[in-house]
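Issue 218. Parser rejects a valid record. Input:
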Amino acid sequence: MEANSLIQKLKKQKLNEEQGIDGNRKSLSNLPEDVLLYILSFLPMKDAIRTSVLSKSWEFIWTSIPILEFRKTLPASRTLHMDFVERVFCLRDDSDIKGFFLECDVQCDVSRVKSWITAAVRHNVQYLFIRLRDLRGQFSLPHCVFTCDTLKWLFLDMQCILKVPPIKCFSNLTVLRIKNVTFSDDYTTQQLFSGLPVLEVLYLMECIWGCLKVIRIFAPKLHSLTITEADMRNQSDCNDQSDCDDESDFDEGDFDGSCQIRIFGASLKYFFYSGEFFHEYWLYDLSSLERAKIVVTRSNVTRCYTRGREVAYRMFKVLIGLANVKDLRLYRSADEVLTYAPELLPTVPIFNNLRYLELEWGNLDSKALLKILQNSPYLERLKFLEIDEVSEYEKDDIILDPMPPCFLSYLKCIEVGNYDGFENELSAVKILLKNAFALDEMVIIFKEYDAENLEKQENLYKQLVEFPKGSQNCKIVLK
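Output the parser choked on:
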């Protein structure tokens, strides 16, 4: 609708000659071509082409649009969609293509899709976004994609086995995002992830490593890495619960059917992981790391004892690699899963640089959480998105014994979210207030706010301010 109204407006203005105050001709057609192309780049491709009817001077402007974006259409119009893409490339002039976004159902049109990608590369493409569905069998990108000197961003989203050529590639690529891809060849996959000299941002989204055993990701300028694991539940589930209850004869080396992903990140500043640790992650030389977020989903982790210990060992490896982090966020059961392997707790690394710790569920009964707090001597801010149950809330001191050093001198702010004022939450806040001797501020964020809860919140505030405080300077702030 907006595009059509713009075209109508342009028609009304006519692009005829109009006399201005200075007597010069005034029309949109007199604008520089790069300005017109910039205007057209905000329109959907089909609407941009329709502007060719406005005047003769507009007839072929669309053939130079720097951004070509072809979104997926309804299945019934797949053929029309594919033919439309074909015609656009056939009528394209020799100007550069800055960005090419292609989303389509491939089916039997693999050769056509490859020809379009090749055409975009030949037009010095800088940003390439490829989202393909209904692929049949293996798929290999044209070799020219991997050797393209102008390519800066590459997004691939395709459920297929991706064939990678055995060549050094991506000399100028700074952002790489790969989703739903299955890798099957050790050598070429290793070539891919070791040949990224200027890569700064890497996303690996729900990729499958097939039969690969070890992969090394080496990108000397990489500063942001995001990994979300594919759901391997059918391969990893413990189907027989009786097999999961035996605590004997367990060894870390018993884990199999996974890939070791070794990450060398001397320049890495941000690391994000989400999944159930179906694979092992080894982090090396993360001395520059500033922020890390780990999300461990519960569904498959807590179903059996053996699986829980497997995840605990793999989570522990990641924590070792994150020892230099400044901002750490642990979501779902990322900290709690360590309790499946209590023998690891005494060797949890010391987080000397950690200043901010955020947890989705703060369970003050958790030995793993207490150990992380004890090993974060300079922690300044602690945030719980939600305070979890405290089983023996009348025993206020025993939970923080031994006392985390940061509670004595460095911890200045504690924030508690989704607060309802239940007895266990009150007890948790009481424990924190009593033991945090350097605290300046306790922030409580209520789960809901409305006029009916106002009186309840006022009563809770009166309770909170009466709690004994380790720091007499601490203020209670309600939000």
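Fixed in the parser; the record now loads. The radius of gyration is 29 Å.
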